[in-house]
Write a structure and sequence with these properties.
Layout (H helix, E strand, L loop, with lengths): L1 H6 L19 H18 L22
Length: 66
């Protein structure tokens, strides 16, 4: 999907989480993925002017489980 969107010249982003596949198990990865989903929906569905992608450092967006 990523390659197809890039080939069409569409704005896209590929995020790879270490040691994760389709079912995530690391709490910080789950939180990061959810924050990215919400940012995308807010931008493209709700029409919010904030960017659809998150900054590189998303550690301040969620708490990690210890």
């Amino acid at each position: 999907m990523y390659q197809a969107l890039k080939a069409l010249g569409r704005e896209t982003e590929l995020v790879v989480y270490p040691s994760e596949y389709h079912g995530f198990s690391t709490p910080s990865h789950i939180a990061d993925r959810l924050a990215r989903y919400l940012a995308w929906y807010n931008h493209y569905v709700k029409g919010d002017s904030t960017p659809a992608s998150l900054p590189q450092d998303t550690s301040k967006l969620y708490k990690t489980a210890n």
